[in-house]
Amino acid sequence: MAEPSEEKLGQRRLLDPAFNKSTGFSEAERDQYKLRGLLPPRVLSLDEHVKRVQSHLRKKDSDLDRHIYLQGLLDRNETLFYRSVIDHIEEVMPLIYTPTVGQACKEFAAIFRRPRGIYLTINDRGRIEELLRNWYEEDVRIIVVTDGERILGLGDLGANGMGIPIGKLSLYVACAGIHPSQCLPVMIDVGTNNHTVRENDMYLGLIQDRVRGEAYDELIDEFVQATQKVFPGVLIQFEDFVTANAYRLLERYKDEVLCFNDDIQGTAAVVLAGVFAATRISGTPFKDQRILFLGAGSAATGIGDLMVSALVEAGLSEDEACSRLWFCNSRGLLTKNSERIAPHNVPYAHDLPEMSFHEAVEAHKPTALIGATGRPGTFSEESLHLLASVTERPAVFALSNPTTNAECTALEAYEWTDGRAIFASGSPFGLVDFHGEVRRPGQGNNAYIFPGIGLGAIACGASRISDGMFLASVKALAEDVSDSDLAAGSIYPPLSDIRKVSLAIAAAVAKQAEAEGLATRSVDNWEATIAPTMYDPFY
Predict the structure, then answer these.
(1) Global pTM?
(2) Is 60 exceeded by the pLDDT of residue 2?
(3) Active-site residue 97, yes or no?
(4) Domain end (from 96, 124, 149)
């Protein structure tokens, strides 16, 4: 096909999602770009386009169909997609991320329409820098990367896990105003041990067992080093790696490059902010909290690690802080006598007798119960009845995603604690009518934290992301929970405020980075500096 003439290049705006406005091109633009006759005559405003999107969405039969429609919209008209997400975030976020993204990942190969992001495989060793340079944008500021081994609570989905980086980066844009051109999703494909995925004729990833050991580590290291050459100073967000790799990679790179693990640190920050907010309802000071975890993987112990830092800051010794946190797995309470204790669990393996989860509730008398099991129904009626008998206003965090994997529902938490539970979940629950009282359960969504972290780190030119920066994000989020939010039963702000929340977090993170000597830029007012830089999609 011949190259388009210069006078025809303007028409390519109809085909480029970054510039396409469809029937939103003005009369003047239709003449300027020679679009006259290529579009229906009526010019529609962006608001009219958003209304049409909502109408189409509401006519779809399932959330997966809505997800597919929205991804198609992103492929056609980037501005309209992000305006629709921002203006209807409470309705649209669950469709582009949790819980619908879980099903979308399972169906990723079947619903694949247009390539998005970079796919790196174990067979590309020695060429990773070359492949990254194939990306068509040069000013990449944020990379979200996964190897697809632990996608939400769904396990090993291989290359189908690319839906997670794509979804996360959509939230960076919508929630924190990172420009779409500065975002790069990356899938590192080393195979999959999920034979159901591999045997699907539509699967698009490598058809082989997962590569582990030295070859895996060399590939990851080549990727990290190549990002620093191709996109100097880029922020790397590790996402949905299996627990052992998640901790190992974070420890390997956190002091070397600008990076964090959202499953470990982002989850920790959003839960800790929820605990802070819950103290305003319960009246129990944070330094007096007793926390019991069900689940001892990377998410749970990541929460524990950040809580220890916060308790130490509140005046406890590290040993005292660790003693406040008890962890149970499927075999019961983690103790010094437990078998096969993972390195990240060692600080929380106490010198205590063996006991079941139910017995641990009775013995520890937790003020907060945190579930990170990936299994539904693990907060039983019996355990929550017991929790309510030992704590007047217990905080109950059912964090497992998607919604179907939550440890209990919001209604169950209220019913089984006589309405005294302060409930939050990982995926959204709707309004709950509890004996005539309408409650708005809080959603401990990482989207409250990671976009603001990224925005702040970019704004100040941070060289690293410290625990102090995460604690700053926690305090900023907790401070944005209003009395009216608490009165409605929520320990998080409404999602409709999320851009305001992200800006406050970004400013707090940048200020903390500056205080720790990790920022390469310094300003007097970070909020005033950052706000004008946030991408706001308009025609």
Answers:
(1) 0.93
(2) no
(3) yes
(4) 96
